[in-house]
Amino acid sequence: MIPTTAATTPLLLPSESYLHPKLPELWFGVVVFTLAMYVALDGFDFGIGMWYATRTEETEREQFLAAFGPVWDANEVWLVAFGTTLLGAFPAAYAALLSEHYLLSIGAVMALLLRGVAPELREQRDDEEWRRACDRLFVAGSTLSPLLLGTLVGSWVFGTGTLSLPAVLTGLAVIALSLSTGAAYLAAKTSGALRAELTRYGTLATAAYLGGVVVLLGVLLALDPGGIADDLVSAPVGAIVLGSVGLALAGLGLAHRGRYHAWLWSSLGVAGLLGVLVATLLYPEVYPATGLTVEGAVVSPVALNLLTVLGLPVLLLVLGYFGYLYTVFSGPVEASGYGE
To answer: Is residue 282 part of a domain?
Structure first.
């Protein structure tokens, strides 16, 4: 007689099961992690570009450009990593995100193009008018990029239209966060009166970010898109918000005590907590507008297993490279010709 357990328990082939039952959740975490890394690292690049508009002296402009010159190209890798991991693990969510927001996505790409090309072009001609035009494009691209990318993320997370109030407020909050991290990064790379001025700027930007988050949460509670109000009053979300406030205020305290590198780390931590908030509000869905869940949108077991075996080691190598990169270029900068 055949045992009952053998007759009722299906035999799963390796191609029909995940390497670990929680592998879909792991890759959801990887997707959000890459997004948080991009917001934190390329975010301070955007902040530098926006603070660049406050400079009138050519030496200070060159110093700002030199401050992030060795790392800003590398920071954009995390945007590529976000798109790649989302496509590889959750292709249905990737397709929905880009197809429903294609104009916003194209606008963000164009803004990133302006931000990237303008500093290179300004060095090609020794002409004051030419340099001023390139500087304006650089500032415009640095401002529009976080606005459009933040609006895209807000629309994705809250399941609202592209130009909805919660989505636009998210874009404005990302601008304020970028200004805060940008000021912290520049303060860690400069000295003297310029550092003191950037500390004041960073204080204002941090206050704007925290105020913007409060306004955004109030709007979400009032409008309740997709029934998100219940999530907003939950203990995890409350802990993340309080943690963000505490970390931001602690960072400002460190800055005013002259511990600028610690301020930079705390500001990057606030950006990281924004990623944790995104994950908390999304899960178990990966695309709220269409109701796609992590389990429903994930690729087949064989594809996800291959992605894990081949992709995770690459991601670890990238993390190691970034650790080395920021160790090498950790010191202060002096004014010099950008790209020389």
So the answer is: yes
In this structure, the number of other CB atoms found within 10 A of the CB of residue 205 comes to 25
Tally DSSP H helices, then E strands, for the chain. 15, 2
Token pair in block for residue 340: 């020389």
Distance CA 240, CA 200 (A): 26
The CATH number given to whatever domain includes residue 81 is 1.20.1630
For residue 334, being part of any structural domain is answered with no
Pairwise CA distance, residues 266 & 261, whole Å? 9
171: which residues sit within 8 A by CB, 6+ positions away? 146, 147, 148, 149, 150, 151, 154
Report the residue count for the chain. Answer: 340
For the chain, give percent helix, strand, coil, nearest 5.
80, 0, 20
CA distance 271 to 280: 15
Cα 183 to Cα 34, 38, 186, 201, 267, distances in angstroms: 22, 17, 5, 7, 10
**What is the arithmetic mean of pLDDT over 298-314?**
95
- Cβ proximity of 4 and 243 under 8 Å: no
Q: Which residues contact 63 (CB under 8 A, 6 or more apart)?
A: 190, 194, 333, 334, 335, 336
Residue 162: its pLDDT value, please?
A: 80
Q: What is the tens place of the pLDDT at every residue in 182-221?
A: 999 999 999 889 999 999 999 999 999 999 999 999 999 9
Q: What is the CA radius of gyration of the chain?
A: 22
Rounded distance between C-alpha atoms, residue 280 and residue 90, angstroms? 17
Domain for residue 267, yes or no? yes
- For residue 285, the cross-strand partners are 293
- What's the domain count of the chain? 1
Give me the helix-helix angle, 23-51 and 260-282, nearest 10°.
Answer: 130
Q: Is residue 1 part of a domain?
A: no
Strands (E), the chain: 285-287, 292-293
Residue corresponding to tokens 């409350």? 238
Three-class SS state of 79: helix
What are 236-254's pLDDT values in tens digits?
Answer: 999 999 999 999 999 999 9
